[in-house]
Amino acid sequence: MDFYTRAISLDSKKTVYFSNRAVALNALGEHARAEQDCKYILSKDGKNGKAFYQRAVARKGLGRWREAEADLKEVLRYQPGNESAKKLMSLVRTQVAQLPKQSAKDAMEF
Description:
Number of strands: 0
Shape: globular
Largest sheet: none
Order of helices and strands: HHHHHHH
Number of helices: 7
Oligomer: single chain
Helix content: over 70%
C-alpha cells in the first residue's frame, strides 16, 4: 500500500494508483480509507466499474449494505458480465433483505 501512496504523491492524476490502493486497503480491512479513494476516482470518472466494485467491498466491510448494493448495481450496469460483482451482489442482497424496511426519506439520505 505504501508504494501506491508514494505513486500518488508523484502523480495524483492517475486514478489507477488510487484504485490499486483501494484494493490493498480493502484487503487490510481499512474500508473507510478504501471508500475515500473510490470516491475520489468516481469524482474524476463516474463510470469506473472497478472503483464502484471496490467501494461496494468497502461499504460491505463497513456494514453499509444498501450502499454496497447501489454500487454493485452500477458495476453491473457498466460490466454486466462481471462474475465477482454478481457473487458479491448475491451476498449483499441477502443482507439487505434482513434489514428493517427504509422509509422514503431515509432512502434518499445516503
